[in-house]
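Just scan this pair:

***
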Amino acid sequence: MRIDHDNVINTWLLEAKKLHKSTKSESLTCVLPVLRRLLSSNVLVDISLPELKNNTEIIQRKHLLKMLAAENGFSCWKELRRAIEVKSQHDELLLPYSIELKNAGYPTLWFATVEEAKTYAQEHRGKVVIVGEQAAWLPEMSEHQVLYSLVIDG
């Protein structure tokens, strides 16, 4: 599927669907990162990681959409959706960080804080992708590279 302004919302919904599927996995390497993200974004409170792992059936898609919103600086999915739509009207794409990083190529530099990444990006040009409290810096891509990098698995 090619990501464009018409289906960017569907890309976020698909991301939430993949994350939801990961919470049902038997593999700890699949499930634990998503559960930790849910807890660190305060979507689910008053529950420990082991308790959540033993009760993954309580996790709904709405929790994952709220987590994605929180990770992008919004209080709810509705606000994030509105921001995605506004950016799309201005020919910008707001994509889940998993897709941004998947298409990043090399080099991808990681920073402990968003501020460090932004400082580096100002000096070297490029894009900052926020991942929780950390951030990655991606080099600027030409329009030709962007067109090819926006193609994802369907």
